[in-house]
Design goal:
Number of domains: 2
Strand content: 5-15%
Distance between the termini: 78 Å
Bound molecules: pyridoxal-5'-phosphate
Order of helices and strands: HEHHEHEHEHEEEHEEEHHHHEEHEEHH
CATH architecture of the largest domain: 3-Layer(aba) Sandwich
Radius of gyration: 24 Å
CATH class of the largest domain: Alpha Beta
Number of helices: 14
Shape: globular
Largest sheet: 7 strands, mixed
Helix content: 40-55%
Structural class: alpha/beta
Length: 437
Amino acid sequence: MYTRRLSAFAFWLLVSTRLVSLPSFLQKTPRTGRGEMDYVYGPGKNHLFVPGPVNIPDPVIRAMTRNNEDYRSPAIPAMTKILLEDVKKIFKTTSGTPFLIPTTGTGAWESALTNTLSPGDRTVSFLIGQFSLLWIDQQQRLGFNVDVVESEWGQGANLDILASKLAADTAHTIKAVCIVHNETATGVTNNLAKVRKILDNYGHPALFLVDGVSSICALDFRMDEWGVDVALTGSQKALSLPTGMGIVCASPKAIEASKTAKSYRVFFDWKDYIKFYNLGTFWPYTPSIQLLYGLRAALDLLFEEGLDNVIERHTRLGKATRLAVEAWGLKNCTQKEEWFSDTVTAVVVPPYIDSSEIVRRAWKRYNLSLGLGLNKVAGKVFRIGHLGNLNELQLLGCLAGVEMVLKDVGYPVKLGSGVAAASAFLQNNTPMIPSRI
Ligand SMILES: Cc1ncc(COP(=O)(O)O)c(C=O)c1O
């Protein structure tokens, strides 16, 4: 017994001092080479091209490197007041009420739903990919009666079915139409103006709830003009902040609905936020001071570039990515041009290639992070995220990396073909940097 213990101790000592290594199946993969630190070093910058979380620009990182502060001092309420006004600009609303919630996109969904609906309420929701699927699951688990309108993954929301449902619903039993503006799993952008038009055509009073998690601050989004009742996003997407803030904006109609909606809510209850807005102290609980300063810096950068220019930049990067995919002879998961997303491209690989292997190799060999295919399209697509604080040359670096990985996994790509197509387009279409003219 004693000898067994002694030899176990000796083995542990040898392993922990790295004099012998553990069998490979017991090793942490990959080895960090940095003692107990839990990240994995790679030289140079990681090329972060997942469709969120995205790159955080240096001025934002610097703005967040600060101590905690007393949020009850006059400084934080004063800052919050301006942030709430400024954040309305990213939704293109003047009449909306924004909420900055310590949560993620998933919590922002819950805030939108529980504040406006009651258990048993009927919603229409479109299933077109993993994120719309998860939102529908949340709606069902919250006790709503969901009419699921399903399309093939790679297609947009079926708005003809929406029209027929609204036409048949003369008693106005449908309380909300819920739609993911940009389905991040498949790179599909839905046409929100069309949804509003259909609601108006039938004079239907249903609330219009929009997930703008991978669209707001990157794609054209007009809350007031499109009559969106609740719009929401997450800080780690096009705002280019760390994860941890859900930003929800409610129209006057949604605020009215929240006064009678019976879904249970505590942490997400808009009533508490509004109470503290009216008191001028703004926070029903302790806010993340660092994220508030980060949001200030992120908005400043967006406004300095100009929101319209930011959107044009995304249009440009989206188009350049699609040109590269075409040059590689690969297919976009998105089936029609009208749904092409300018924030994420899901690339379909040939059946003899596992797209997860592309993602794995890109990270292991080239320090390039690509998005995995999710759920139904797992193994079949990999995703290039092109949203947030990102420029043309960064994208070209990513495209060059993708070409090398494609070759690694046996796809007969001509190295440079995608980069050439994308750079020819970008060279013709990239304007001067607005702040440097
Ligand atoms: C469109 C969309 N909605 C919702 C979510 C969920 O957001 P989170 O992971 O921040 O909870 C995501 C996450 O990627 C998303 O892409």
